[in-house]
Amino acid sequence: MTATKAFAAQSPTSGMAPHTIDRREPRPDDVAIEIDYCGVCHTDIHFAQNDWGITEYPVVPGHEIVGRVTAVGPEVKSFNVGDVVGVGCMVDSCRTCSACESGLEQYCSEGMTSTYNGQDRHDHSITFGGYSERITVSERFVVRIPEKLDIKAAAPLLCAGITTYSPLRHYGVKAGHKVGVIGMGGLGHMGVKFARALGAEVTIFTRSESKVPEAKKQGADHVVISTDEDQMAAAAETFDFMLDTVPVQHDLNPYLNCLKHDGTHILVGLLEPVEPPVEAGALVFKRRVLAGSLIGGMPETQEVLDFCAEHDISCDVEMLDINNLNEAYERMKKGDVKYRFVIDMQTLKNG
Fold first, then answer.
1. If phi over 0 gives left and psi between -120 and 50 gives alpha, with beta otherwise, what is residue 172?
2. Burial class (CB in 10 A: 0-12, 13-18, 19+), 283
3. pLDDT band for position 184 (50/70/90)?
């Protein structure tokens, strides 16, 4: 075991602070990684503050990890020391169920092992995430970062990127489709970029007039202010897909009514019971689909990185000193970041 600097929460109210964890020596199929950058996801806040009631403390968040390989186990075939690699939201799965065999490890029938706050399948220890100097991960759950990508901006692609790319690809978004993206945050701005790159006509739905210029800057063809009844009425029955990135409770019904018949509303942000209830008639009478999507499997995670390199897509990031992490959390709650904080891990190593 190797003593490793990290930042952890010790309780729901403790905030994030320096902490020391142990990292294992590489198993035969492991890749050891020195972390250079780690994105900050809103899920990190939920776990740090135990918003979902499942956090095991101490918790070291971080599942948008980019770094360099420092060692490999004897069975590793795809990576060498010095390679620039990434680790996303999961570090293991059962590997034998139909989902895993299909490269959809996020839907593992036994449950994927999360990068943090999960339980290691071998020694049953609690997993610690990327707010740390280094991490050791099975080769199967490591991806290669294409040379063309800015590695700082590539880190959020491992969560925000794959979360929005996967459903667009799964449901076959292509040229001629009209896609609405609900929410203009870390997920939403990536959804716009991907839908545009796939050839769709893209509309951002936002509650704020102030976000109109930014939405256009990100590549949206149109912007609808969702609190404006006239604008929402004009948008009725015009969209093939709605990509819903909002992570808090909101009324889905006005957005469902914006779908054509056979349209699909895809939830990627909300994990709680829907409130207010969905009006079933809005689905039944137009054969609409209300769907959900969770990150992406390992083959698709590599695919999104390669897609971004090919299409010159990256996440808009603000670099962060890890010592300012608590302040960053408060800013994220207010939506005061465009659009993803990325921690420079040198600030941890120098601390």
1. left
2. middle
3. confident
CA angle, residues 264, 88, 252, in degrees to nearest 5: 25
Query: Tens digit of pLDDT for each residue in 227-241?
Result: 999 999 999 999 999
CB of 297 within 8 A of CB of 105?
yes
* Nearest alpha-carbon partner for 130 in 325, 318, 277, 331: 325
Amino acid 239 reads: F
Please answer whether residues 119 and 126 qualify as being in contact, where contact means their C-beta atoms are separated by less than 8 angstroms.
yes
Convert the pLDDT of each residue in 273-320 to its tens digit. Answer: 999 999 999 999 999 999 999 999 999 999 999 999 999 999 999 999
Is the sign of the CA dihedral 223, 228, 234, 236 positive or negative? positive
User: DSSP state, 209?
Assistant: G
Give the per-residue pLDDT at 185. 87
Tens digits of residue pLDDT in 108-146: 999 999 999 999 999 999 999 999 999 999 999 999 999
As given in the structure block, the two tokens for residue 222 are 């149109």
Largest CA distance in the chain: 63
Distances (CA, A) of 225 to 188, 189, 215, 256: 15, 16, 11, 15
Collapsed DSSP state (helix, strand, coil) of residue 328: helix
